[in-house]
Here is the input.
Amino acid sequence: DYTKEKKAGEGTYAVVYLGTKKSTGRSIAVKEIKTSQFKDGLDMSALREVKFLQELKHVNVIELVDVFMANDNLNLVLEFLPADLEIIIKDTSIMFSPADIKSWILMTLRGVHHCHRNFILHRDLKPNNLLLAPDGQLKIADFGLARLMASPQEILTSNVVTRWYRAPELLFGAKHYTSAVDIWSVGVIFAELMLRIPYLPGKDDVDQINVTFRALGTPTDADWPEVSSFSNYNKIQIYPPPSREELRRRFIAATENALELISGMMIMNPKKRWDAVKCLQSQYFQELPEPTLPQDLP
Amino acid sequence: DLHKRYELVENEYNDSFIRDLQKKKEYIASGFRADFIYDRMLTEAFM
Amino acid sequence: YRHSSQYRLWSFTKEQLESRRRALNVKVVDKVNEKLQDIISKHNDLSQEELNAINEKAVPVTMEEELKFVNFFAKKVQSFCHSLNLPTEVCATAISFFRRFFLVNSTMEIHPKHILLASIFLACKSENYFIGIEAFAKKTKSQPTTILKYEFDVLESLQFTLLNHHPYRPLHGFFLDIQYILHGKVDLNYMGQIYTNCKRRITETLLTDVVYHYTPPQITLACLLIDDEALTLKYLEVKFGSPPEEQKESETEGMKREETPSDTKLPSNLKLQTLTALIRECQAMIL
Here is the structure.
């Protein structure tokens, strides 16, 4: 029922084709997963994509249309999403307004909220995993690093989330982190949408720690109890947190409520960081301008 | 379902297992949240 | 839960489950008989006693026999998981994968022993308890190729649905909520004992068809009912019982006002007697 008309990309474990669902004429993307590639059977990223996308149905999460085996390859049929937020941010010929930014962040937070209320952590939120549908809807994609919220005593790997969007607790090697890591990533994306350049572009993992704390201040036990117990805490430089004035200068187009939201999403202590519900209920989404309707977005 | 069939009242729960974890340094530093655990268990019970 | 693949694809009434298994058995019995006729017709030099032997021995298994066979191996999945010291959830998922596989395939097509290890291996991956194939094959004294060969068969038969809801987390949830609803009236050590007993019983229910007919929370409540009927009924009564006004009338006859927190009366679209009847049914099936 599916055609593969054009190769759209090739990753480590999959080749992506654009095609059509014949019975409906719907444009689709087929992610063909090479099964021979992974000596341990089905690749973990593919397994996670299938496991979680089968359970999530939300306008702001990419839809898994079908899954099937064909000539020993696993095929994920996904809805066709021609663009992503990274393309939009980088293409300076595209002008976008504060209302557009508000719309993209609102849709991102709705998608993240749906994952979190199903106790699923995405763990790789970044602009090129936020895809854009022809009708303007933003959809969270690439669940290759996703996992269920940990059982209480479970140990998680901190080697997740693409570096620039990685939360401080992950930079410190935390093993019992929560969905707060996704909220941090959304905060960085929000900043990038306003600045049109990456907000915390570390050259490597060590530099990432430095870049993060130089921009946002080094956390102390006062605001983040036990942060000094992380093994690599002592090696880091102590920087003061930015003043409100400094934040205003950094995000000149941002309203007070926008600064409130981005500060809430990027609170160092994960325990105090805002969760998806608190973000969605923030004043920023209740003040003018109203978020641009998806179909009117660039 | 607007009305969840439970109230999350953290200080009413005597859960020694979770409470012990909350006191561990590595859990505190990681941002471990007992209320997230309770919310998940209660959601699974009342879904 | 209604959006979950477990509800959408793997929940059946007793009739649906029976007819699914019967249809599968009939289909495969036909195939087996066809093959037998084919062999007999190709070998026209068979002696009479050979023909008798074929007619006597090569008899396809019935649906009931298949079910016994599958359940026998499901128990082996469980004991294998225990010998590998796998976490409770991983073991539960492995059993679930194994039993669902044989709702779609017959033991006459694939011997359960081949699916046993593939189910456990896939469950380890799916529950983030990854064990590399070499290490896994070594631990289980088997061949990597055999396990990997069947991994895709299992995945396909599962229709690529991997996320399982087991009754363990609901047990933890009710353990918390009972403390709140009956607060001050339950002894914590006693609750701890209940928790342990119910956890063990839940593990047993994973080997039965209860998992296809009831939701995880209903199974948990049935296990609680088995373990302490009075406590469970009291809890459900206070939690979902008659609305406060009716309750006040019954109290004005001089009964001491229950000190249950009035805010526990959450507007719930749930009828206590319907729930209790359902849990009783589930309890009976488990026992």
In short: Chain C has a mean pLDDT of 90. Chain C touches chain A through 24 residues (CB under 8 Å).
